[in-house]
Specification:
Largest sheet: 4 strands, antiparallel
Number of domains: 2
Oligomer: single chain
CATH superfamily of the largest domain: Domain of unknown function DUF1214, C-terminal domain
Structural class: alpha+beta
Order of helices and strands: HHEEHEEEEEEEE
Distance between the termini: 43 Å
Number of strands: 10
Shape: globular
Helix content: 10-25%
Number of helices: 3
Low-confidence stretches: 39-47, 194-201
Strand content: 25-35%
Protein backbone atom coordinates (compact mmCIF):
# COMPACT_ATOMS: atom_id res chain seq x y z
CA UNK A 1 0.00 0.00 0.00
CA UNK A 2 2.80 2.40 0.87
CA UNK A 3 4.52 1.55 -2.44
CA UNK A 4 1.33 2.42 -4.38
CA UNK A 5 1.19 5.82 -2.70
CA UNK A 6 4.79 6.55 -3.63
CA UNK A 7 4.14 5.43 -7.22
CA UNK A 8 1.04 7.66 -7.48
CA UNK A 9 3.09 10.56 -6.11
CA UNK A 10 5.76 10.07 -8.79
CA UNK A 11 3.13 9.69 -11.53
CA UNK A 12 1.64 13.04 -10.53
CA UNK A 13 4.78 14.67 -11.99
CA UNK A 14 4.34 12.97 -15.38
CA UNK A 15 3.48 15.41 -18.20
CA UNK A 16 0.06 15.40 -19.83
CA UNK A 17 -1.26 16.94 -23.03
CA UNK A 18 -2.55 19.88 -21.02
CA UNK A 19 0.64 20.47 -19.03
CA UNK A 20 2.17 23.93 -19.25
CA UNK A 21 5.90 24.48 -19.60
CA UNK A 22 6.24 26.04 -16.09
CA UNK A 23 4.29 23.08 -14.74
CA UNK A 24 6.65 20.65 -16.41
CA UNK A 25 9.65 22.50 -14.97
CA UNK A 26 8.12 22.43 -11.49
CA UNK A 27 7.37 18.73 -11.80
CA UNK A 28 10.90 17.95 -12.97
CA UNK A 29 12.38 20.03 -10.15
CA UNK A 30 10.25 18.31 -7.50
CA UNK A 31 11.13 14.88 -8.90
CA UNK A 32 14.87 15.66 -8.82
CA UNK A 33 14.49 17.05 -5.29
CA UNK A 34 12.68 13.88 -4.19
CA UNK A 35 15.35 11.67 -5.76
CA UNK A 36 18.12 13.67 -4.10
CA UNK A 37 16.67 13.48 -0.60
CA UNK A 38 15.78 9.81 -1.02
CA UNK A 39 19.34 8.99 -2.06
CA UNK A 40 20.85 11.22 0.62
CA UNK A 41 18.59 9.78 3.29
CA UNK A 42 19.34 6.17 2.41
CA UNK A 43 23.10 6.87 2.32
CA UNK A 44 22.94 8.61 5.72
CA UNK A 45 21.04 5.66 7.21
CA UNK A 46 23.54 3.13 5.84
CA UNK A 47 26.48 5.12 7.22
CA UNK A 48 24.96 6.06 10.57
CA UNK A 49 22.81 3.00 11.36
CA UNK A 50 24.13 0.24 9.10
CA UNK A 51 22.45 -3.09 8.33
CA UNK A 52 22.99 -6.71 9.44
CA UNK A 53 25.36 -7.01 6.47
CA UNK A 54 27.67 -4.28 7.78
CA UNK A 55 27.06 -4.23 11.52
CA UNK A 56 26.61 -6.84 14.25
CA UNK A 57 24.41 -6.18 17.27
CA UNK A 58 25.11 -7.58 20.75
CA UNK A 59 22.37 -6.36 23.08
CA UNK A 60 22.73 -2.57 23.14
CA UNK A 61 26.20 -2.72 21.54
CA UNK A 62 26.93 -2.34 17.81
CA UNK A 63 30.08 -3.45 16.04
CA UNK A 64 31.10 -2.70 12.42
CA UNK A 65 32.74 -6.06 11.87
CA UNK A 66 34.45 -5.52 8.49
CA UNK A 67 36.33 -2.34 9.40
CA UNK A 68 39.97 -2.40 8.44
CA UNK A 69 39.61 -5.52 6.27
CA UNK A 70 39.78 -6.08 2.51
CA UNK A 71 36.06 -6.95 2.66
CA UNK A 72 35.15 -3.56 4.09
CA UNK A 73 32.23 -2.04 2.14
CA UNK A 74 31.97 1.66 1.17
CA UNK A 75 29.46 2.40 3.93
CA UNK A 76 31.71 0.94 6.61
CA UNK A 77 34.66 2.93 5.25
CA UNK A 78 32.55 6.10 5.31
CA UNK A 79 31.45 5.39 8.89
CA UNK A 80 35.03 4.88 10.09
CA UNK A 81 36.21 8.00 8.22
CA UNK A 82 33.42 10.01 9.84
CA UNK A 83 34.37 8.74 13.30
CA UNK A 84 37.99 9.86 12.89
CA UNK A 85 39.37 6.50 14.07
CA UNK A 86 42.19 4.59 12.41
CA UNK A 87 40.75 1.66 10.40
CA UNK A 88 42.69 -1.05 12.25
CA UNK A 89 42.06 -4.64 11.23
CA UNK A 90 39.25 -6.34 13.16
CA UNK A 91 41.69 -9.08 14.21
CA UNK A 92 43.59 -6.53 16.32
CA UNK A 93 41.07 -3.83 17.20
CA UNK A 94 37.31 -3.66 17.62
CA UNK A 95 34.93 -0.91 18.64
CA UNK A 96 31.52 -1.31 20.26
CA UNK A 97 29.06 1.57 20.40
CA UNK A 98 25.90 2.01 22.49
CA UNK A 99 23.36 4.83 22.36
CA UNK A 100 20.53 3.22 24.39
CA UNK A 101 20.14 1.52 27.76
CA UNK A 102 19.05 -2.10 28.24
CA UNK A 103 15.39 -1.08 27.94
CA UNK A 104 15.92 0.67 24.61
CA UNK A 105 15.77 4.23 25.96
CA UNK A 106 18.10 6.80 24.37
CA UNK A 107 21.06 7.60 26.61
CA UNK A 108 20.86 11.17 27.84
CA UNK A 109 22.66 13.37 30.36
CA UNK A 110 19.41 14.03 32.23
CA UNK A 111 19.48 10.43 33.49
CA UNK A 112 21.93 8.35 35.54
CA UNK A 113 23.11 4.87 34.57
CA UNK A 114 25.02 1.90 35.95
CA UNK A 115 27.22 -0.09 33.58
CA UNK A 116 28.36 -3.49 34.83
CA UNK A 117 30.59 -5.96 33.02
CA UNK A 118 33.57 -8.28 33.04
CA UNK A 119 37.12 -7.73 31.75
CA UNK A 120 37.51 -8.26 28.01
CA UNK A 121 40.14 -10.80 26.95
CA UNK A 122 42.53 -8.40 25.25
CA UNK A 123 45.79 -6.52 25.75
CA UNK A 124 43.94 -3.27 26.47
CA UNK A 125 40.39 -1.92 26.44
CA UNK A 126 38.65 1.30 27.40
CA UNK A 127 35.14 2.63 27.94
CA UNK A 128 34.54 6.30 27.14
CA UNK A 129 31.63 8.72 27.17
CA UNK A 130 30.82 10.99 24.22
CA UNK A 131 28.08 13.34 23.10
CA UNK A 132 25.95 12.80 20.00
CA UNK A 133 28.65 14.43 17.83
CA UNK A 134 31.32 11.96 19.02
CA UNK A 135 33.04 14.62 21.16
CA UNK A 136 34.25 13.78 24.65
CA UNK A 137 32.06 15.13 27.44
CA UNK A 138 34.24 17.83 29.01
CA UNK A 139 33.91 18.11 32.79
CA UNK A 140 35.72 19.70 35.75
CA UNK A 141 36.69 16.28 37.13
CA UNK A 142 38.49 15.56 33.84
CA UNK A 143 37.06 12.06 33.69
CA UNK A 144 36.48 10.97 30.12
CA UNK A 145 37.09 7.20 30.10
CA UNK A 146 38.27 4.22 32.10
CA UNK A 147 40.52 1.48 30.80
CA UNK A 148 41.73 -1.98 31.75
CA UNK A 149 44.68 -0.49 33.64
CA UNK A 150 43.03 2.17 35.80
CA UNK A 151 39.47 1.00 36.40
CA UNK A 152 38.48 0.03 39.96
CA UNK A 153 37.56 -3.66 40.10
CA UNK A 154 35.10 -5.73 42.07
CA UNK A 155 36.23 -8.81 44.00
CA UNK A 156 35.27 -11.07 41.07
CA UNK A 157 37.39 -9.01 38.64
CA UNK A 158 34.39 -7.26 37.13
CA UNK A 159 33.61 -3.56 37.32
CA UNK A 160 30.82 -1.02 37.71
CA UNK A 161 30.83 2.36 35.97
CA UNK A 162 28.35 5.06 36.91
CA UNK A 163 27.33 7.63 34.30
CA UNK A 164 25.65 10.64 35.87
CA UNK A 165 25.64 14.46 35.94
CA UNK A 166 26.05 14.16 39.72
CA UNK A 167 29.21 13.05 41.53
CA UNK A 168 29.46 9.34 42.23
CA UNK A 169 32.11 7.23 44.01
CA UNK A 170 34.73 5.08 42.27
CA UNK A 171 34.27 4.69 38.49
CA UNK A 172 32.22 7.79 37.68
CA UNK A 173 31.88 9.32 34.21
CA UNK A 174 30.30 12.80 34.44
CA UNK A 175 27.68 13.41 31.77
CA UNK A 176 27.28 17.12 32.59
CA UNK A 177 24.62 18.68 30.32
CA UNK A 178 25.79 16.98 27.13
CA UNK A 179 22.31 15.95 25.98
CA UNK A 180 22.26 12.71 24.00
CA UNK A 181 25.10 10.37 24.95
CA UNK A 182 27.15 7.65 23.29
CA UNK A 183 29.30 5.06 25.05
CA UNK A 184 32.23 3.63 23.08
CA UNK A 185 34.30 0.57 23.97
CA UNK A 186 37.70 0.23 22.30
CA UNK A 187 39.41 -3.18 22.35
CA UNK A 188 43.02 -3.74 21.22
CA UNK A 189 45.08 -6.91 21.02
CA UNK A 190 42.09 -9.25 21.10
CA UNK A 191 42.96 -12.56 22.75
CA UNK A 192 39.63 -14.33 22.19
CA UNK A 193 37.32 -14.08 19.20
CA UNK A 194 35.48 -16.35 16.82
CA UNK A 195 36.66 -17.49 13.37
CA UNK A 196 34.94 -14.56 11.65
CA UNK A 197 36.59 -12.00 13.95
CA UNK A 198 33.17 -10.47 14.53
CA UNK A 199 33.43 -10.30 18.30
CA UNK A 200 30.96 -13.09 19.11
CA UNK A 201 33.13 -14.37 21.96
CA UNK A 202 34.17 -11.13 23.64
CA UNK A 203 30.59 -9.84 23.42
CA UNK A 204 29.85 -11.89 26.54
CA UNK A 205 32.01 -9.41 28.46
CA UNK A 206 30.27 -6.29 27.17
CA UNK A 207 28.60 -4.41 30.04
CA UNK A 208 24.91 -3.93 30.66
CA UNK A 209 23.55 -0.38 30.85
CA UNK A 210 20.74 0.13 33.35
CA UNK A 211 19.00 3.43 33.97
CA UNK A 212 18.63 4.19 37.68
CA UNK A 213 16.86 7.56 37.57
CA UNK A 214 16.33 10.82 35.74
CA UNK A 215 16.26 14.43 36.91
Amino acid sequence: MQYDKILDFIKSFAPSRHSSFPGLLLGAFLFILLAFFTGFGSAWYMIEKGTPLTRHKFGVWHNWHTQGTVNSDPYTKAYIARSGRLPLNAKYAQYFKATTDDDGNRLTSSCSYIMQGQPIASDWWSIGLYDSNSNVVFNKAERYAFNSKNIARLENGGYIIQVSPFARPDNWLPSEKAGKLTVLIRVYGIQASDDTNSGNVISASLPSIKRIGCS
